[in-house]
UniProtKB/TrEMBL annotation:
Protein name in UniProt: PE domain-containing protein
Bias (Polar residues) ranges: 1-15
Compositionally biased residues, Basic and acidic residues: 23-34
Region listing for Disordered, in residue ranges: 1-34
Source taxon at top rank: Bacteria
Originating organism: Amycolatopsis panacis
Length: 164
């Protein structure tokens, strides 16, 4: 096997040196690795910074970051969100009527069909309920934000009038 260029399973590397690297070769590899890592780190850092900036813009609203909505925007969105919540509430009521439909016959297949239909109606109502709660919660949060803004605005106006 000696200086064979293939790995032989006896622990020797392909070059036949049994894992030994001279100090000079080790230093050269370290220098190359350092250059490679610096280049990769520089590129990686730049890409990371770009992605972080993009993510910050995208996630600002969700993370409580710098997302700002003015009072006019909130006032224009509130009726839309309340309308969505109201429509979903009506859909929930109609969906609950699905379970009142009787099975077409008293045979096993009709019984299984009725159970499946009722299960589907339950899932439908559960989904609508989640959506309605979200829409109503958003509408409520908009209303609270509008109220707080208007209260602060009135307090500021009163304070300015008092001073002057």
């Amino acid at each position: 096997m000696g200086n064979d260029q293939s790995s032989s399973g006896n622990g020797q590397q392909a070059n036949g040196r049994a894992g030994y690297i001279s100090p000079e070769e080790k230093a050269e590899r370290d220098r190359q690795d350092k250059q490679y890592n610096e280049a990769m780190n520089s590129t990686g850092a730049r890409i990371y910074q770009q992605r972080a900036a993009e993510d910050a813009k995208i996630n600002a609203a969700a993370t409580g970051g710098r997302f700002v909505m003015d009072i006019d925007a909130m006032k224009s969105l509130l009726p839309d969100w309340q309308d969505i919540a109201d429509k979903l509430f009506k859909m929930i009521n109609k969906g609950q009527q699905l379970k009142q439909v009787s099975q077409p016959a008293e045979d096993p297949a009709s019984t299984m069909q009725k159970k499946a239909a009722d299960s589907h109606a339950d899932a439908y109502i559960a989904s609508l309920t989640q959506q309605q709660a979200y829409a109503q919660g958003y509408a409520d949060q908009l209303k609270q934000a509008i109220d707080r803004y208007e209260q602060q605005d009135q307090a500021n106006t009163h304070s300015l009038n008092k001073r002057g």
